Amino acid sequence: MAYLVSEPPASHHHNDVTGKGFKHLTPTNEALEALMQEVPRRVIEVETVPLLSALGRILGHDLMSPSDIPPFDRAAMDGFAVRAEDTYGASAGSPILLNSIGGVGIGVVPTVSVRKGDAASVVTGGGMPQGANAVVMVEYTKQTRNGSVEVSGEVHPGENVSRIGEDVRKGTVVLKEGTRLLPQDIGMLSYLGFTEVSVKHRLKIAVLSTGNEIEEKPESTSGKVPDVNRPTLLSAVRELGCEPIDVGIAPDEFSEIQDKLRGAVAMSDIILVTAGTSVGPGDMVPRVIDSLGKPGMLVHGVAMRPSMPTGLGVVNGKPIVSLPGYPVSAYIAFLEFVPSLVNHLLGTNSLPRPVVKARLRRRVAGVLGSRTYVRVQVSESGGNLFADPVRTSGAGILSSLVQANGFLIVPEHVEGYEEGQTVEVELFRPVEREQAAK
Amino acid sequence: MAYLVSEPPASHHHNDVTGKGFKHLTPTNEALEALMQEVPRRVIEVETVPLLSALGRILGHDLMSPSDIPPFDRAAMDGFAVRAEDTYGASAGSPILLNSIGGVGIGVVPTVSVRKGDAASVVTGGGMPQGANAVVMVEYTKQTRNGSVEVSGEVHPGENVSRIGEDVRKGTVVLKEGTRLLPQDIGMLSYLGFTEVSVKHRLKIAVLSTGNEIEEKPESTSGKVPDVNRPTLLSAVRELGCEPIDVGIAPDEFSEIQDKLRGAVAMSDIILVTAGTSVGPGDMVPRVIDSLGKPGMLVHGVAMRPSMPTGLGVVNGKPIVSLPGYPVSAYIAFLEFVPSLVNHLLGTNSLPRPVVKARLRRRVAGVLGSRTYVRVQVSESGGNLFADPVRTSGAGILSSLVQANGFLIVPEHVEGYEEGQTVEVELFRPVEREQAAK
User: Fold this and answer.
1) Is-contact B110 B130, C-beta < 8 A?
2) By three-state DSSP, how is residue B417 classified?
3) Do B115 and B257 fall into the same domain?
4) Residue A147 CB neighbours (<10 A)
5) Which of A348, A349, A328, A300 is nearest to A35 (CA)?
6) Per-residue model confidence as pLDDT tens digits over A262-305
7) Do B64 and B79 sit in the same domain of this protein?
8) CA distance B195 to B199
9) Which of A366, B103, B174, B236 has the fewest CB atoms found within 10 Å of its own CB?
10) Distance between CA B360 and CA B390 in Å, rounded?
C-alpha cells in the first residue's frame, strides 16, 4: 500500500497509540542508537580543496600551525620602543629623557637598533627594533626640540609588545579534525599560509520515491499525483552539505524497488526511500531491504508523530532510512534521523535550531509514549511571542510545514500543553511580526 | 595608520570609554538605523532559476497556487467509499449491508460509480468514485461471502475524504515574496508544477583590504604580514548567500584606496573595506568615502567592543561599511551590521543564532555604554554547561574566534558578569563535551 496521505494527523489518534499494525514502536533515540551501533563511524575519505572553497566543509585532519603568529615581535601600541630598564622611575612628575633615534614604519623591516638610553618611534603592528623590549605608549611621551624623548611613565619588559608566537605557536593544533570550517577559520588558515585544505568527502545520499500513484508530470485527470518527497529530500540533503543522488521513482513492485535500492546502496553513503513502509501487504520496502543483505531492517516503527511508520536498516554497512510516504512525515523523520546520522559518519556536530519561548494560543495534544512534532506559527505581538498550532486536518501534503516557522516538540512523557502555557519552539524560519488588527 | 593589531582588547580600556580619538560613539542599533534610512529598501532585481537550485534563495514575488491540492477528492483512509446517508444508524450491534461494487486502485482514475446502497473499496490516496461522499474505515467493515459489505459504523458526508483543494486552494498565495526557500518549500512548489522560480539576485558584496603591511604572500623576513580580513570576509559573504567580489589590497595611499573603492561602488551592492578607519592622520578611509559622493560617512565610531572604530557610509545609494583592520574587530563588526543590512535590502529575515544558558567560569567585564562581544568557549560537563571566556590578551589575530564557540554579548547598560553567574551565549559552533579529568 502506498502511503501518500495515509498517516492521520497526530490529533486524530483514532487507533491505539502503538500505531496501526506496529506491535512495537521504538523510541527515536534508541532507534538512532541501534543504527549507529551497526554503522560505526568509518574513516571517511578526504579530498583536498582550495581554501576559499572549504567554507562549511569538515576538516579531514588536525591542522598544525606551520609558523608563529605574530611572525615577529611587534609593537602593540603606537609609541616608542625602548629598553624597559631605561624607563624605571619615570613619572609625570619626573620624566626621563631618552635619545630619539628615528622610527620604524609599518610593513618594513626595522633598520634602527635600540641601545641603552635610546627610543625609536613605532606604530602598532610594526616590527620591534633590535634591542628594544617594550613600548611606551605615545600618550606617555613628548618629543623635545633637541631630538630627545621625554618619557613620563615606566614600562616593564614585554609591555605593549606582541611577542612572536604569542597568538599561535608554531606546531600547535589550530583546528581539529571534524571541525566545520567557519569564515574565521578560513581567515586563520589563510594567514598561516594554507592555500588548500584536506576536508572529508561530501557524503552521497540517495533519494528514492516509491508508489504507483506518483508520476514526474502527471496529467490532472490521470489519477496520478506529482512527487513531493524527492524534491523536498534532495533539497534537504543539499542543505546538510551532502551530495544528493536522485534515484527517481519506483512503482510498488518488489523487483523494481529492489533494483533501484541495490543500485543506491552501491553508489551512496546513505539511502533514503519513501513510502511503502507501513505494515500492509503492499508495503514492501522493509522486505526489500531485508532481501538486500544483512542485517537488513533494524527498527520498523518509531515512537514519534507524525512519521511513526519509519524504518531504519543497514545493508553492506550502508544505512537505509525507510521514510513514510506522507510528505510531512517523510520530512520530519528525515530531520529526526538523517542530520544526526550524517554527523555520526563525518565525526562532527552541528548547531541546534534556535529556540524561542512563546505562549500557546491553542491547546496541543501529544501522544504519551511518542515524540510529537507539532507545527506552529510563532509571531510577535506587542513585544510578546505567541505560538499558534498550524491546522493539520485533512490532506496536509506539506502546507503545514510551509505555513509554520517552528516545531513544538512534545516529548514522550508529556500528554500535551494547555492554551496559555509558555512552551519552547524550535524555529526553522524567523518569527514574523503580527499585523496590528484595525 | 594601519590597524592590524591596534585595537586593544576590551578588558584593557586604558583609554576612556568614548574611545581613542572618537568624540562620540554611536550605539550600534542607531548606527544601523541611520544607514538603513539612507539606503531605503530598493527593488532588487529578480532572476529565474531552476526550482531545484532555488534552495536558500529569496523569493522574488508572491507565488500563487496554479492548482488545487489535492487535485481531486481522495480517500483519506483505507476502506469503502459510500454515500454517507446509507450508513446512518449502522453500529456494531446493528450493521448495515451494502453492495460491494469493486474497487479503486491508487494512481488510477476511478471507473466505478457509487449509487444508493453501494460500497466501493478504496485505498488511502486513491481517487473517490463518483457518487460517494464518505469513506467507512476498513476496521468498521466486513466483506461477506455473497459480495456484500457489512458496515458497523456510520459516517457523515465528507468523513475520511480529502476534498479537492482542501490543503491548498487554487489561486491562494502559498509563499510570500521575501521568503527564504526551505526544502519543504521546494517540495511544495514542485508539487504545484513549478519547475523554475523567480528569486532575488544575490547581492554583490565587495571586499577591500587596506594597509602597507599587508601582502598576499609575504616573505617571513619582510616585515609584511598576510591578509586575514579578505579571506575571512569573502567567506562570511558567501555564508550569507551573497556573491563576494574580491577587490584586493590597497596600500595606505589616498588615491589608491579611492580608485579601488570607486570601482567597488560601481560593481557591487554593498562595499566592505578594512583598516584605516581610526582617527589618526594615516587613517584615510573615512575621508576617501566622503570624497566619493554624498552623503559619504554617516557614522564613525560605534559603541561596541571590539570594533569601535567602525564607520558606516553611503555613496551613490550603496552602503559602505568601513571595518577596523584588527581581524577580530573586522569580523565582529561584520556580524553586527552586514547580515541585517543584507536582510534589509532583500526584504527578508534570517534565523537568530541559537542561544544556550551557561555558568560563567570567570568574571567578564563589559564597558558601560558599549555593546561588548566576549568570545567564550561553552562546554558540557556533568550535564551542565559552562562558559569560559577565551583569553584575548596580546595580538589575538583571530585565534579567539577560532577557539571560541559562542559570543557572550554584554549589553550597553551592563557592567559585566560575575564568576558563577548564568549567562546566555549565542553559539556559532556546537557545544563540546569536556574530557573527564583523570
Assistant:
1) yes
2) strand
3) no
4) 9
5) A300
6) 999 999 999 999 998 877 677 899 999 999 999 999 999 999 99
7) no
8) 13
9) B103
10) 12
Q: How many domains does chain A have?
A: 4
**What backbone phi and psi angles, to 5 degrees, belong to A346?**
-90, -10
Give the distance from residue B218's alpha carbon to the nearest chain A alpha carbon, in angstroms.
9
Q: Which residues contact A94 (CB under 8 A, 6 or more apart)?
A: none
In chain A, which residues have their Cβ closer than 8 Å to the Cβ of B233? 183, 187
Å between B293 CA and nearest CA of chain A: 30
Measured between beta carbons, which residues in chain A are less than 8 angstroms from residue B51?
A: 231
B75 close to B125: Cβ distance less than 8 angstroms: yes
Contact A107 B56 (CB under 8 A): no
Of the partner residues A74, A127, A183, the one whose CB lies closest to the CB of residue B395: A74
Task: Using the structure block, give the residue that is written with the C-alpha cell 581581524.
Answer: B327
CB atoms within 10 A of CB B404: 25
Asked if the C-beta of A20 comes within 8 angstroms of chain B's C-beta atoms, the answer is: no
Domain that holds residue B155: 74-162
Q: What distance in Å separates the CA atoms of residue A120 and residue A161, rounded to the nearest whole number?
A: 14
Is there a single domain that holds both residue B305 and residue B286? yes
Q: Which helix (H) or strand (E) holds B151?
A: strand B148-151
- According to DSSP, residue A89 is labeled T
The residue length of chain A stands at: 438
Contact B55 A401 (CB under 8 A): no
Q: Give the chain B residue whose CA is nearest to the CA of A390.
A: B167
Q: How far apart are CA A304 and CA B43, in angstroms?
A: 44
Q: At A56, which CATH number?
A: 3.90.105.10
Residue of chain A nearest B79, judged by CA positions: A6
Same domain, A313 and A227: yes
| 8 Å CB contact between B141 and B92 | no
CATH code where residue A259 lies: 3.40.980.10
Pair type for strands B118-122 and B96-103: parallel
Same domain, B214 and B327: yes
Give me the phi and psi of A298, to 5 degrees please: -105, -40
ipTM: 0.90
Cα distance from A240 to chain B (closest Cα, Å)? 11
A233 and A272 Cβ atoms separated by less than 8 Å: yes
CATH number at residue B100: 2.170.190.11
- Res A93: pLDDT: 92
The answer to whether B139 and B103 have CB atoms below 8 angstroms apart is no
Q: Grid coordinates representing A79?
A: 609609541
Same domain (yes/no): B194, B244: no
Nearest chain A residue (CA) to B351: A430
Tens of pLDDT, residues A296-312: 999 999 999 999 999 99
B285 and B338 together in one domain = yes
Detail the DSSP E strand segments found in B21-105: 46-50, 63-64, 74-75, 79-82, 96-103
Which among B109, B167, B401 has the least Cβ separation from residue A184? B401
Residues in Cβ contact with B185 at an 8 Å cutoff, skipping those fewer than 6 apart: A402, B175, B179
